[in-house]
Write a structure and sequence with these properties.
Protein name: Chemotaxis protein CheW
Subcellular location: Cytoplasm
Main location: cytoplasm
Low-confidence stretches: none
Distance between the termini: 29 Å
Number of strands: 11
Mean pLDDT: 92
Oligomer: single chain
Keywords: Chemotaxis, Cytoplasm
Number of domains: 1
InterPro entries: CheW (IPR039315), CheW-like_dom_sf (IPR036061), CheW-lke_dom (IPR002545)
Shape: globular
Radius of gyration: 15 Å
Largest sheet: 6 strands, mixed
Length: 136
C-alpha cells in the first residue's frame, strides 16, 4: 500500500492538501509586484533567488472569500510542466500522509469542483486534495 506525503494548508479555515512531490518550497509572504492585464487570480510576480516567479491568490482562484495577509500567510512554490508558480495560502499546517484507499471521490458537482482530486478523512478532519494541473 503506497502512501503519499501531502502538504496540508488552510484556506478560509478549511484544510487543503497538495502532494509533496509537486511542492518545491514554502516561503513567507514576500513583496509582490503587480502585473497589469493578467487573470483576476494572479497576484503578481516575485523575485525568488533571481528567478521571476508568478504568484496566484489561491483563495481567489478557487472562488473563496479572500482573507487578509498576516504572519501565518505563506507562499507554496509548486512546479508543473517545468514552470514554477507561487500560491498564496492562509497558513501551512503540516506534512501529512495518506494512502490511496483514504482518498474518496467528492460526490458533488459544481464549477469549482474540478480542482479537487479527492477528499481525505483523517479522524474528525477532512482534507480537500487539490489537482494542481487543473488549478494552473
Amino acid at each position: 500500500m503506497a502512501e503519499e506525503q501531502l502538504v496540508i494548508f488552510q484556506l478560509n479555515k478549511q484544510n487543503y492538501a497538495l502532494s509533496v512531490n509537486e511542492t518545491k518550497e514554502i516561503i513567507r509572504m514576500a513583496e509582490i509586484t503587480k502585473v497589469p492585464n493578467t487573470d483576476h487570480f494572479i497576484e503578481g510576480i516575485i523575485n525568488l533567488r533571481g528567478d521571476v516567479t508568478p504568484v496566484i491568490n489561491l483563495n481567489r482562484r478557487l472562488g473563496l472569500y479572500e482573507t487578509e495577509y498576516d504572519q501565518d500567510t505563506r507562499i507554496i512554490v509548486v512546479e508543473h510542466n517545468k514552470e514554477r508558480v507561487g500560491m498564496i495560502v492562509d497558513a501551512v499546517n503540516e506534512v501529512g500522509r495518506c494512502s490511496e484507499e483514504e482518498i474518496e471521490s467528492p460526490d458533488i458537482t459544481g464549477e469549482e469542483i474540478d480542482f479537487l482530486r479527492g477528499v481525505i478523512k483523517k479522524g474528525d478532519e477532512l482534507w480537500l486534495l487539490l489537482d494542481l494541473k487543473k488549478i494552473l
